[in-house]
């Protein structure tokens, strides 16, 4: 027993000596030397075979202790009054809207929990567009929008009528959108964030793209920040955390995440049985981020100072989030009994009454603690920063809302609740004004309004704020497009033709430097490796190694000023880069021209939500769907073969979608897109598909309306040469199946059918044109009806109309009702297969034989051809009537 006691004493002395040595190094040489020593000790232990896992969490207390807090630079009292005014108006906005229109929605509790987080930023950190740095970019949490509107109202940027019309955008006098929507409020919101998870991802790639512009010399280097305000529940979205490593790897110290950890999501606790803040800390620290925790207010400092043996810290480490949520709704007596649940812990708070215990705030509601965290974050270098703030959902709204599981769904407050809320906020509103839920705004010369405006002036102007116009670019030299009109005797794919066009544009003196090629690790697949040497791959550190292919003609070349964004295997990440580049004219005042290449199957199907966000941000650029179609990508099979992306393009109002067959069509589409988006500033973006099948690129047909037809969606490609036809037909072909349509034209001549071939470059453009004409006719009953473009083209033609594409039949069927005669659609409905192109086209019934047969069958349906002749043709063409339906196979 004596030996055991002696051993314990020796260990205690050894520990004390180590700690004293550490204290000496801290005092004499500072934190960096401490880190070096700890790393050396870990390395030595690992060499000795001792596992020394690096702790990824710190104690459940504030990262910045009281003695390291900077002095607060603002007037806390007037800032408190401003915050209370905003809290009232934010709540009043939602309550009024739902009294006026039951069920109109809105959110009371999110802003209530985050008001201090925003206001400290507005008063002291968020730099506006007139700041010398160029201004910060702030991704506001979508559900907190009422509070952001309330601040804009206080500053005089929006009117009381607009507040009154919250979520009533079509009301007289104008209204306010439910969430941050740049399409609906183009001069106000910069970033759409309420599709949860997209905000964090877009913020990371925005910060990265800002650095890209700096490294390329297109934007002055500055200390401007990208702030992203997020919810702890939102962090469960895969997109929210999927790119954390990129931010750390590229040392994006221009990026700050603020995660509002009110411990609740829509239905209940985020992590009732554990601790979300500790979980997030481990995640971010493990990814290489600097983590700052703001958990407890200044009210807790004296209590923690009395905790000399660490018992309270240990208790806080173990308490569950479900318990913390309950402490927020229970009394001080309950806290004393359950949180401070030992005699030693009770002693720490024996000087506090139950009322005082109940008033202990969480750290995110203390501007002093928040300011200290923000200041540390903006001064940190070498990595991105995440600030994890602990708050209470529905803070100050009252007992029916604060920390309740129903808080997210609460839209209304009765008169008694509103009166109590006014009293808590200390606002000079009469009972009648409260019952009428009137907004409160002090006079323009009041201390509150003056202070708020002065702080924003000092920081470079109000936020959020968005440029409504973007820098226009000159048109590229027409020579970049001319060569494609002549076609090519050599067999090449439309992919390679597009790479050639892109190469021409990169060399153009007008726009070459503004082009941003983006690829998710498929540049070689798309034949773009020649660009590695020509323009380089962007890397913030350049190329620190000698690549394995450095002695070849096309080495993998990384450069600090590289132009290509090689994103790795992440279509979502690449799409976020496309958004940052395609909206740069609005966010940075520097217009860029992104070309984002991807497997068409892994495009709109995978990043559709981001594409919707891109659309409402008025993004500009080209989405290039490579290896397109269900039958063009031989061998790859079901997961890779795209037969529906063009149909998926329909819902995006400002997305132009094209399925070109030849190089000259691509050149015409890109030329038109550059003019419309970047010369004229139209708010559209383009999607076109290209393939890897090599075939002769035919020249552009002669005729003055061909280029117009290409961009409008359809033109006559080749008339039949049959001199004395028995029958006539119209064939609509596009993309990968166009060559099968041309073969069918020749086959049909053997049956006496003169078939004209039309190239349909865009079913969506034909559809939109027809719908617009139909709507105009509906609204102008006395005027001469407009005729849809596709109807104009086919009106004077004869014979069956058969459409064939490498996409589902619903695509051509979408224009069927505007054609002069019934449409027969051939398409690739069903799952793909690993096979040759020839076999796939036979399987999906879109090859030349099936197109030919469809025309003959249509002639029989019209009574112009005997059924026996059709049956004979079926045998001659080798078509099996008992073949399984590809949709069910």
What does this structure look like?
With 889 residues, this protein is α/β, with parallel strands linked by helices. It is 42% helix and 11% strand. Strands 10-7-11-12-14-13 form a six-stranded parallel sheet, with helices on both faces. The protein has a five-stranded parallel sheet with strand order 1-2-3-5-4, sandwiched between helices. Strands 16-18-17-19-20 form a five-stranded mixed sheet. It is globular and about 105 Å long.
List the helices and strands and how they pair.
Elements: H1 2-29, H2 31-47, H3 76-100, H4 109-124, E1 137-139, H5 145-155, H6 160-164, H7 198-215, E2 226-231, H8 238-241, H9 244-249, E3 255-261, H10 276-287, E4 290-294, H11 301-306, H12 311-318, H13 321-329, H14 332-338, H15 343-348, H16 354-358, H17 367-379, E5 385-390, H18 415-425, H19 431-435, H20 447-458, H21 479-482, E6 488-492, H22 494-506, E7 515-519, H23 530-535, E8 537-538, E9 558-559, E10 565-566, H24 571-582, H25 584-587, E11 593-599, H26 604-616, E12 622-626, H27 645-648, E13 655-658, H28 663-679, E14 685-689, E15 695-697, H29 706-712, E16 714-718, E17 727-733, H30 738-750, E18 753-760, H31 763-779, H32 789-794, E19 801-804, H33 810-813, E20 823-826, H34 837-843, H35 848-861, H36 867-877
Parallel strand pairs: 1-2, 2-3, 3-5, 4-5, 7-10, 7-11, 8-9, 11-12, 12-14, 13-14, 17-18, 17-19, 19-20
Antiparallel strand pairs: 6-15, 16-18
């Amino acid at each position: 027993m004596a030996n055991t006691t002696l051993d314990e004493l020796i260990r205690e002395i050894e520990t004390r000596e180590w700690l004293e040595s550490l204290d000496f190094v801290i005092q004499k040489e500072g934190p960096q030397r401490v880190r070096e020593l700890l790393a050396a000790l870990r390395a030595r232990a690992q060499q000795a075979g001792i596992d020394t896992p690096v702790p990824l969490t710190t104690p459940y207390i504030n990262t910045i202790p009281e003695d390291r807090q900077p002095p607060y630079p603002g007037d806390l009292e007037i800032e408190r009054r401003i915050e209370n005014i905003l809290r009232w108006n934010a709540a009043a906005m939602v309550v009024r809207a739902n009294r006026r229109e039951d069920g109109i929605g809105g959110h009371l509790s999110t802003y209530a929990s985050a008001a201090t987080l925003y206001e400290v930023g507005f008063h002291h950190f968020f730099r506006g567009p007139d700041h010398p740095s160029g201004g910060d970019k702030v991704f506001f949490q979508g559900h907190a929008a009422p509070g952001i509107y309330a601040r804009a109202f206080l500053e005089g940027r929006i009117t009381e009528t607009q507040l009154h019309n919250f979520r009533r955008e079509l009301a007289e006098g104008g209204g306010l959108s439910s969430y941050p929507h740049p399409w609906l409020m183009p001069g106000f919101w910069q970033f759409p964030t309420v599709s949860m998870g997209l905000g964090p991802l877009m913020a990371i790639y925005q910060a990265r793209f800002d650095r890209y512009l700096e490294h390329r010399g297109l934007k002055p280097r500055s200390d401007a920040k990208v702030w992203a305000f997020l919810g702890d529940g939102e962090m469960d979205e895969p997109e929210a955390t999927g790119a954390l490593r990129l931010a750390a790897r590229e040392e994006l110290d221009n990026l700050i995440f603020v995660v509002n950890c009110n411990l609740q999501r829509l239905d209940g606790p985020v992590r009732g049985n554990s601790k979300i803040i500790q979980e997030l800390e481990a995640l971010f620290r493990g990814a290489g981020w600097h983590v700052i925790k703001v958990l407890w207010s200044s009210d807790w400092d004296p209590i923690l100072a009395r905790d000399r043996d660490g018992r309270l810290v240990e208790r806080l480490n173990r308490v569950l989030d479900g318990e913390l949520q309950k402490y927020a709704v229970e009394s001080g007596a309950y806290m004393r009994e359950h949180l401070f649940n030992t005699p030693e812990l009770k002693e720490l708070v024996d000087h506090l009454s139950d009322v005082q215990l109940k008033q202990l705030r969480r750290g995110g509601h203390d501007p002093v603690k928040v300011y200290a965290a923000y200041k540390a974050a903006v001064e940190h270098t070498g990595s991105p920063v995440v600030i994890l703030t602990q708050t209470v959902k529905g803070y100050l709204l009252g007992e029916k809302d604060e920390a309740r599981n129903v808080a997210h769904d609460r839209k209304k407050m009765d008169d008694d609740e509103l009166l109590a809320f006014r009293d808590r906020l200390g606002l000079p509103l009469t009972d009648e004004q409260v019952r009428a839920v009137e907004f409160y705004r002090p006079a323009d010369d009041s201390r509150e309004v003056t202070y708020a405006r002065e702080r924003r002036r000092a920081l470079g102007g109000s936020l959020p704020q968005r440029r409504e116009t973007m820098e226009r670019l000159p048109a590229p030299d027409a020579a970049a497009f001319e060569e494609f009109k002549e076609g090519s005797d050599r067999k090449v794919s439309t992919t390679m033709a597009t790479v050639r066009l892109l190469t021409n544009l990169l060399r153009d003196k007008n726009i070459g430097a503004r082009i941003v090629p983006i690829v998710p690790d498929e540049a070689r697949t798309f034949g773009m490796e020649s660009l590695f040497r020509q323009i380089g791959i962007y890397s913030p550190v350049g190329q620190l190694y000698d690549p394995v292919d450095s002695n070849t003609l096309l080495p993998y070349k990384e450069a600090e000023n590289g132009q290509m964004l090689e994103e790795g295997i992440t279509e979502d990440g690449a799409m976020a880069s496309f958004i940052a580049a395609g909206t740069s004219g609005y966010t940075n005042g520097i217009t860029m021209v992104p070309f984002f290449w991807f497997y068409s199957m892994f495009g709109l199907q995978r990043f559709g939500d981001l594409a919707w966000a891109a659309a409402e941000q008025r993004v500009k650029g080209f989405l290039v769907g490579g290896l397109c179609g269900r039958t063009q990508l031989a061998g790859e099979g079901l997961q890779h073969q795209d037969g529906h992306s063009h149909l998926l393009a329909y819902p995006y109002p400002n997305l132009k979608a094209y399925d070109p067959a030849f190089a000259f069509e691509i050149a015409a589409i890109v030329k038109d897109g550059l003019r419309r988006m970047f010369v004229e500033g139209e708010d559209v973006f383009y999607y076109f598909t290209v393939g890897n099948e090599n075939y002769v690129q035919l020249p552009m047909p002669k005729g003055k309306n061909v280029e117009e037809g290409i961009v409008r969606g359809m033109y006559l490609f080749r008339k039949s040469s049959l001199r004395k036809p028995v029958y006539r037909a119209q064939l609509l072909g596009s993309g990968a199946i166009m060559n099968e349509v041309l073969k069918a034209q020749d086959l049909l001549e053997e049956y006496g059918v003169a078939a004209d071939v039309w190239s349909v470059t865009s079913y969506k453009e034909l559809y939109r044109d027809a719908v617009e004409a139909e709507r105009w006719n509906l609204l102008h009953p006395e005027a001469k009806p407009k005729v849809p473009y596709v109807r104009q083209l086919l009106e004077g033609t004869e014979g069956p109309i058969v459409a064939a594409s490498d996409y589902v039949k619903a695509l051509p069927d979408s224009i069927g009702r505007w054609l002069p005669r019934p449409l027969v659609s051939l398409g690739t409905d069903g799952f793909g297969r690993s096979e040759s192109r020839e076999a796939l086209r036979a399987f999906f019934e879109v090859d030349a034989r099936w197109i030919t047969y469809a025309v003959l069958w249509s002639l029989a349906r019209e009574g112009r051809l005997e059924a026996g002749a059709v049956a004979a043709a079926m045998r001659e063409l080798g078509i099996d009537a008992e073949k399984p339906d590809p949709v069910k196979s």
